[in-house]
Amino acid sequence: MAKLKVAAVQAATVPFDAAAATARTVALIADAAATGAKVAVFPEAFIGGYPKGLDFGCCIGRRTPEGRADFVRYVKGAISVPGPEVDDLVAACAKHDITTVVGVIERDGGTLYCTALYLSPAGLLGTHRKVMPTGSERLVWGFGDGSSLTVVDTPHGRLGGAICWEHYMPLMRAAYYAKGVQLWAAPTADDRETWIPTMRHVAMEGRCFVISACQVMRRSDFPEDYASRIEAGPDEWMMHGRSVIVGPLGEVLAGPLLDAEGILTADIDTDDILGATLDFDPVGHYARPDLFSLHVDERVQAPVAVLSDDEI
Question: Does the annotation count 44 as an active-site position?
Answer without folding.
Answer: yes
